[in-house]
Amino acid sequence: MKLYDLVSSTQTLHALERDVLGDIDIHSIDMDSRQVERGSLFVCLKGLTVDGHDYVQSAVQQGARAVIAEKPVDVDVPVVLVPSTTHALADLANAFYGYPSQAMNVVGVTGTNGKTTLTYLLDAIFSEANQKTAVIGTIDMKIGDTRYPVNNTTPDALFLHKNLHLMREADVDTVIMEVSSHALKQGRVLGIDFDDAVYTNLSQDHLDYHPHMDDYAYAKSLLFAQLGQSTGHQTKSAVINIDDDYHEVMMQATGQSIVSYSLEKPAVIHVDDYSLSPNGLSFDVNTPAGIIPITTKLSGKFNIYNILAAIGVAYRHHIDLNVIKRAIEHLEGVPGRFELVDADQPFTVVVDYAHTPDSLMNVLQTIDELKQGRVITVVGCGGDRDRSKRPKMADAAMTYSDEVVFTSDNPRTEDPHAILADMTNHLTETDRFDVIESRREAIQTAIDNAQDRDMILIAGKGHETYQDVNGARYHFDDREVARELIQARLNN
Ligand SMILES: CC(=O)N[C@H]1[C@@H](OP(=O)(O)OP(=O)(O)OC[C@H]2O[C@@H](n3ccc(=O)[nH]c3=O)[C@H](O)[C@@H]2O)O[C@H](CO)[C@@H](O)[C@@H]1O[C@H](C)C(=O)N[C@@H](C)C(=O)N[C@H](CCC(=O)O)C(=O)O
Ligand SMILES: Nc1ncnc2c1ncn2[C@@H]1O[C@H](COP(=O)(O)OP(=O)(O)OP(=O)(O)O)[C@@H](O)[C@H]1O
Ligand SMILES: N[C@H](CCC[C@H](N)C(=O)O)C(=O)O
Ligand SMILES: [Mg+2]
């Protein structure tokens, strides 16, 4: 493709003159000098760690034919200067791949907790409605039945437009994606034509990255501001949890129609009453199209919210109520979210991805309602992340557990003992908790101490199959370790 034609077809760079761009053929777009292919257009991005402008020579040596930059760089290929390479990258990638998101139904899900769970619910519903689906999120990317690994919950703009193109080629009808606040602030989803934007909730997380909660909320609201911007169509919807304190920030960001959902107030999608049992939940969902009686294997009041959000989107797309009901009832669960490890032991072991104060409290409140014996919690906090959530997570664990084993999560570049000190320094009830840095030994202690009918919660890593220590990833899976240690105890 000629660079001039590519640039002409973008939404923001199209005014550039042909003589500025020359007669250059472009075969790909790259943002990482280490991945540049011959004939590519290299876009210099200023990152949080390094500045892509510093890698421009290496990109050109590897075969980049032109460069998009924010400041002059010394190379002997054409350089186009733009005010924001972040915006330019998204715009160019979107144009290069032919605006793929406009050809499909794209649902974006944002909020602190519940995004992955909601993508699984929506995938089940749209699939049950005979649509071909794709999902991008924390666990992986799925196109039809094929799964691919991802580095981020919401990958960069280049990855996204490229893969949206592959999804369109694969005849995908509906794409369901998690949209993180990092992605929104870093412009990773710019140019995506979302049809629905869903808001789950906001509670403390990522205050290492966002200076305060209002910045975090503002970042989330960008998804709603983006709704309908690409095409200007008034057929988009914001599906919003109006029980959440920040819901108005999201509502005010969009001019599109709102589908509200609630457990506490009058809303388009609402539930008046529910029952919680060891086998899941049952409740009636009121929608303008009728009532949907739901029974589900998902546990916890918070999952009612996730289901209401999913129904909000499905209702908006006129999916048959029986189809919605069937899909939700058939969903067995989400990997690493309230996942039971059952090796016929006389106590219960739950692995859950709760890694924020709010999610940990929610999952422990659920356990509190279901428990038949004592509660033992194994939990840690990730390194290089929000330090101020550490004592709060420890408090949540102590409030709802009889015994807590504080341990490592992903220490990353931090000293695990320092993370554990941040969690536990303020705690006084020393007879109710242990600090055991090795996660395996911590799980072992919980399993050794469990009595009949007790419940063990292993929180924080859910589906993760590694531990990140100083940039090296070692295989570690809470579910595997728990199963192995339970079996060892049963065989002794
Ligand atoms: C803190 C953060 O968000 N970092 C993200 C950011 O990386 P960065 O700014 O450090 O990038 P950088 O290394 O400085 O590189 C800048 C530019 O130079 C280029 N470069 C770099 C080196 C080189 O040799 N050559 C070169 O060209 C890079 O390709 C890039 O274009 O941009 C990258 C590309 O989009 C992301 O992969 C990366 O996510 C890292 C891995 C990360 O851990 N992010 C987490 C915090 C995150 O984003 N999490 C959210 C989920 C959060 C949640 O809701 O729970 C997510 O969406 O995953
Ligand atoms: N709607 C909800 N409200 C509060 N907590 C929830 C909700 N849904 C799930 N949780 C809790 O949060 C944990 C993470 O859930 P999930 O993975 O669905 O969220 P997420 O938003 O995708 O998280 P991440 O930002 O890490 O990708 C679950 O294991 C559960 O403990
Ligand atoms: N998306 C979240 C996941 C945290 C999971 C937890 N296991 C940790 O490593 O802190 C983050 O990157 O902050
Ligand atoms: Mg997620």
UniProtKB/TrEMBL annotation:
It comes from the Bacteria. Pathway: Cell wall biogenesis; peptidoglycan biosynthesis. Residues 336-462 form the Mur ligase C-terminal domain. NCBIfam families: murE, PRK00139.1-2, PRK00139.1-4. Catalyzes the addition of meso-diaminopimelic acid to the nucleotide precursor UDP-N-acetylmuramoyl-L-alanyl-D-glutamate (UMAG) in the biosynthesis of bacterial cell-wall peptidoglycan. Belongs to the MurCDEF family. MurE subfamily. This is UDP-N-acetylmuramoyl-L-alanyl-D-glutamate--2,6-diaminopimelate ligase. It comes from Alkalibacillus flavidus.
